[in-house]
Design a protein that fits this description.
The protein is an alpha/beta fold. Helices cover 36% and strands 14% of the residues. The chain has 2 domains: 277 residues, Rossmann fold; 112 residues, no CATH class. The two termini are 24 Å apart. The protein binds guanosine-5'-diphosphate and magnesium ion.
Length: 473
Amino acid sequence: MRGLLNSAGRAWSALDDLVNDRPLRVAVTGLSRSGKTVFLTSLIANLLAMGAGRATLPALQKRIDEGGKERLRNIRLVPAGASTIPRFDYAGKLFKMAATQPKWPARTEDLAEIELELEIQPASGILGQIRALTGTPRLRLELLDYPGEWLLDLPMLDQSFSTWSAETLARLREKPRSDAAAEFLEFAAHIDASRVADDALIQRGHRLYKEALERCRAEYGLRYLQPGRFLTMGARNDAPFMWFFPAETLAGSPSPGSIGALLTQRFDTYNAEARATFFDTHFKKFDRQIVLVDTLGALAAGRAAYEDTEHALADIAACLAGGNAILPRWLGGTGIERVAFVATKADHVPELHRDNLRALMRDMVHLAATHAPGDDSVSFHAAASVVSTTDGWADQPDGHREPVVWGTKLGETQKRPYRVGNVPISRPPENFWSGRYFELPAFTPPPIDPHGANGIPHLGLDRILTDLIGDRV
Ligand SMILES: Nc1nc2c(ncn2[C@@H]2O[C@H](COP(=O)(O)OP(=O)(O)O)[C@@H](O)[C@H]2O)c(=O)[nH]1
Ligand SMILES: [Mg+2]
């Protein structure tokens, strides 16, 4: 019964979108370096190549063909209109990866958008006939890229400055955060928030707090860091409302003109800004969501980093797919119908380990309690946006052979075998952590055609698309 109602509801919303010619909004998120920019670039290149007749996304092609052969007519980029959202620079990023000395695209930390149009002949069946009647055999895909760090602000937006400060300071005093934040904690211990506000002092506190967050991330691989925009500034870097930090305040409202009053005001403005510029305006309108997870990176960074990333991801997943109970009431829920969770950079491990990688990522997001297997609103994948290695074998010192991947490290010229280690299928036991933490090697991308005519070699992007938007093609 539920299935019946669901598909009726789905048909209705699909019909509504057709009549109103509304694009399907597919958002891509993930913590920084999880692979969002590379993922979107490869996805677009492979969709455009499929539109030109290349077999770049076989699973999606198969899904389209189920409604009749040769239905896919064309896929094109929709020219930028007068959107207020920065455009995702697809051509620029492709060009960088396709250069004779290939580079990965530069770091980006803001919302970006790009739109594709898929021209698909109507299938037989009721929806297809409606499509034929309305004369719109088109599916517009609006693709958006935004930092996952922003979602970590959601719990904070409901808190008062003093509650948030108390929680944040308590967390900062735990190891290993306390090492990264030593200078800030020393500063915070001497701050009397009831004193008259001194802007130079507050700016110093802000700078020390931001440095502490950056060190937590860069040196310890920690990820549960608030506020998210302190690490992903976007364009609003220099506005004074950003200049705050967590501080012990006395109970009750701080006296006007005090340090406590100014910090509270800035904190409240930050929250209002986050709502107005992202949650109320964009986040609420997403139809489908892709969440990228650098599971291997978290594993390599050691136990504290892994567990902190897990904490951050479980929170993000709960906001996106855990039902509305977890979301602040002012948001009024999300419109997200399907979510795909993706362990990225799966080309860092040989094929034999990729199922484990998917299972580990699934374990990390803690959705087992709310989502039964078979629920098609949530899917889990291990994928590589740009396959930069080949599978192979390498002899071990003890004589036996191990599956490895062969790749060229960025900046080197020689291919070498790499073995990241075993990938567990759930949170590793205590004795897994050897204490030897390392960074995953950055490999040189493979030769790519700068016009993207043949797409980009990937692993699993087609299955992600099929699970996420297969009901709409
Ligand atoms: N080998 C490999 N490396 C990848 C892949 N995707 C991303 N990377 C690496 O991860 C880095 C971060 O990716 P990026 O898309 O910039 O992450 P973002 O911060 O989430 O946008 C890149 O510079 C690459 O070195 C992939 O599919 N394979
Ligand atoms: Mg990026």
